[in-house]
């Protein structure tokens, strides 16, 4: 099994538990084609995050333009500040489309017969690692986006200005870059509090609906197994000690939370009910054992971006743990 090892000789609560080497897993020959496709997408993820982190917005220029509607120079200054930002936002949106296709390719590989999802994760460690990297990127992107209200303010100003110019029968060069159809799609994307997570949830549900001969359990079992993988690595000292950096620890926590949220959106009754294959109490406990400032964002993600937390089927104990 290479770097993917059975953690225990017995099954805990009948859930699969594995150790996955997120740092060193390499593709086998059978994985290489899909692995190369996903790697080509993921190689842009760090530059996307750096670009988003550096996004300052055009707030002062927009404010001056709105307060002085008859000052042509201030209008031009605001417009010239916003246009390159909109092009940047388009790049982020287009990356979400690439990520959506990448996730569906991975799900196809990790859920197809004759192997069970557990067997896939044992045999295809490098693809499991890429799946984890997509989730890690998604939570980081959405954390940054939620902390940056300038994104929606800039795009709203862009759309208002474009609409005004269209009424006046003016055509602006940027419309060749971001036409009305593209602007509509981008607007829906950025209106979401967690746009990348919404993209992945939709991609996973689309994958399930398009593959009617594939039981939904194949997909949800893949997600619950990945959650167990992360939880065991985090709570088992001998496995945590294999991480060569604190970044891997944070990576593992983000992935665990990302998979829980994805499972909660895709599974008919979600991650929090008693019949869930995810040990939610154990996962929350693992998070709460870390330094509070490092996990508060992840706990907030479970509080505010899951779908079924407030269902009647969720135990009071789990709700109390997340208060």
TrEMBL record:
<protein>
    <submittedName>
        <fullName>CYFIP related Rac1 interactor A</fullName>
    </submittedName>
</protein>
<comment type="subunit">
    <text>Interacts with RAC1 (GTP-bound form preferentially).</text>
</comment>
<comment type="similarity">
    <text>Belongs to the CYRI family.</text>
</comment>
<dbReference type="InterPro" id="IPR009828">
    <property type="entry name" value="CYRIA/CYRIB_Rac1-bd"/>
</dbReference>
<feature type="domain" description="CYRIA/CYRIB Rac1 binding">
    <location>
        <begin position="18"/>
        <end position="319"/>
    </location>
</feature>
<keyword id="KW-0449">Lipoprotein</keyword>
<dbReference type="GO" id="GO:0030833">
    <property type="term" value="P:regulation of actin filament polymerization"/>
</dbReference>
<keyword id="KW-0472">Membrane</keyword>
<dbReference type="Pfam" id="PF07159">
    <property type="entry name" value="CYRIA-B_Rac1-bd"/>
</dbReference>
<dbReference type="InterPro" id="IPR039789">
    <property type="entry name" value="CYRI"/>
</dbReference>
<dbReference type="GO" id="GO:0016020">
    <property type="term" value="C:membrane"/>
</dbReference>
<dbReference type="GO" id="GO:0031267">
    <property type="term" value="F:small GTPase binding"/>
</dbReference>
């Amino acid at each position: 099994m290479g770097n993917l090892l059975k953690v225990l000789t017995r099954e805990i609560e009948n859930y699969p538990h594995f150790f996955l080497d997120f740092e060193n897993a390499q593709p086998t020959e059978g994985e290489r084609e899909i692995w190369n496709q996903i790697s080509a997408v993921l190689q842009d993820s760090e530059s996307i995050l750096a670009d988003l982190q550096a996004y300052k917005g055009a707030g002062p220029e927009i404010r001056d333009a709105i307060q002085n509607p008859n000052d042509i120079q201030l209008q031009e200054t605001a417009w010239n500040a916003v246009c390159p930002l909109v092009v940047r936002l388009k790049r982020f949106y287009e990356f979400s489309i690439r990520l959506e296709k990448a996730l569906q390719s991975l799900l196809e590989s990790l859920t197809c017969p004759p192997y069970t999802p557990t067997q896939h994760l044992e045999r295809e460690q490098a693809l499991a690692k890429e799946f984890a990297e997509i989730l890690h990127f998604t939570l980081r992107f959405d954390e940054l986006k939620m902390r940056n209200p300038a994104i929606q303010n800039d795009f709203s100003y862009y759309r208002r200005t474009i609409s005004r110019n269209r009424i006046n029968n003016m055509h602006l060069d940027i419309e060749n870059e971001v036409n009305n159809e593209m602007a509509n799609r981008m607007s829906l994307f950025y209106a979401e509090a967690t746009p990348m997570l919404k993209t992945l949830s939709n991609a996973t549900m689309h994958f399930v609906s398009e593959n009617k001969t594939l039981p939904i359990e194949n997909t949800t079992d893949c997600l619950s197994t990945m959650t167990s993988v992360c939880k065991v690595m985090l709570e088992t000292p001998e496995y945590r000690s294999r991480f060569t950096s604190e970044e891997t620890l944070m990576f593992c926590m983000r992935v665990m939370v990302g998979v829980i949220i994805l499972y909660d959106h895709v599974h008919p009754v979600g991650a929090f009910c008693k019949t869930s294959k995810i040990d939610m109490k154990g996962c929350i406990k693992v998070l709460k054992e870390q330094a509070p400032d490092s996990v508060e964002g992840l706990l907030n993600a479970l509080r505010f971006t899951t779908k079924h937390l407030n269902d009647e089927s969720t135990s009071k104990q789990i709700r109390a743990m997340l208060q």
